[in-house]
Amino acid sequence: MTERHTRRGPGRPSAKGPTPPTDEEILTHGLAAFVELGYDGASMRELARRLGVSHNFINDRYGSKLAFWQAVVDHALEDVTRNLAPVLHPETPAVDDAARLTAVVRRFYEISARTPLLNQLMMEESHRASERLDYLVERYIGPTLAAVQPSVQRLVDSGRMPPTPIYMLYAAVIGPVIAMTGNPMMAKLGQPADRQEPEMVARASELARVILDGMLGPRPPAP
Q: How far apart are CA 157 and CA 162, in angstroms?
């Protein structure tokens, strides 16, 4: 069973000394630490040092390193989930399933362009079986795929898409996200290191178009 994190209220700041970090700062810096060090390489002592807190802070506040990791992931994915919701669960579902799938993939790529650290963490965790991967699949990846599965099935049934297992759909969509993470390989292939966010979002939208054209093919002629 996946361990769920239990967040405790923040303690009172000391009357003397530096201002303690906020929850926002703790979770944001925690994401950067897990990406740089990896889960196994991020010792409690090193995490505390990078967060600017006492060595027992994580256990006192979150209960364990795994629970802290879950809190970090939930915080990082909070905006992602909120921004994806309007196209993933629209109030008025699109009549055209291809248009809905297009909207979901494009929005996902645009969000990914703005969250390179989160992309790196999720790709790193996808390479090994763990409680953390179970957490990501059960809480985020699985529900997202389940939401688009009916549209994909109707596209397959209508002949617009070839028969596509859901794991193949995931691989087709998630693989190109590596192009937006600013990793060393892409830098060696010529990806600029100082891209501005508008350029990254525009490039993500273009990448989505390339992927979707490959999956859906040309649009059928209008009746």
A: 9
